[in-house]
Amino acid sequence: MSSRKKVLLKVIILGDSGVGKTSLMNQYVNKKFSASYKATIGADFLTKEVLVDDRLVTMQAGNRIWDTAGQERFQSLGVAFYRGADCCVLVYDVNNSKSFEALDSWRDEFLIQASPRDPESFPFVVVGNKVDVEENKRMISSKRAMTFSQSKGNIPYFETSAKEALNVEQAFEVIARSALAQEEAEEFNGEFSDPINIHLDNERDGCAC
């Protein structure tokens, strides 16, 4: 594969409402943070060109956002939103136990909707956001989060603050590498996915053997 080929990496960011998915995207792509939070309905994608091992790739980070009441009405958004994903980022708020406990459900939903070729090896990254909040308000310890990540196949784990830009670049660097490796694996597998049909004509030349 040519190193000059333009590569588009699709990264899906999932997690409960209010954990900071949009803020992480904006901090990574635009180096901006807004304290105002407004839940919207639909899907939001931001793109950024990055260098991964001297390869210029375009990261397309997507965050599906809708309120609970709107889920059924926008269920059809699912398949198109997940299709062609190269990496999935599971985000929770370290100060919110419920958002952490929901990670399994988000992971399962992704695997069902995206239907990756090899679910066992598909790259996920876990991000515990909002570590800038006072320590005494924290509800999920680093140890607990790392234990979860290890139980899912040693998923990379990062603790971030979208507000203070803490570990955001580092997390997305690993996300980009994981996505690129997945994209290359998919492309390699695709080269050998066409079935080979072998037709034996046993009756050629009148032979009935």
From TrEMBL:
Record-linked NCBIfam families: small_GTP
This protein's record includes keyword Nucleotide-binding: yes
Family from the record: Belongs to the small GTPase superfamily. Rab family.
An example Gene Ontology biological process: regulation of vacuole fusion, non-autophagic
GO CC term (a single one): late endosome
Domain of life: Eukaryota
Keyword Lipoprotein among UniProt keywords: yes
Gene Ontology molecular function, alphabetical: GTP binding; GTPase activity
SMART domains: RAB, RAN, RAS, RHO
UniProtKB keywords: GTP-binding, Lipoprotein, Methylation, Nucleotide-binding, Prenylation
Species of provenance: Aspergillus glaucus CBS 516.65
Listed name of the protein: Ras-related protein Rab7
UniProt-listed InterPro entries: P-loop_NTPase, Small_GTP-bd, Small_GTPase
Pfam families referenced in this protein's UniProt entry, alphabetically: Ras
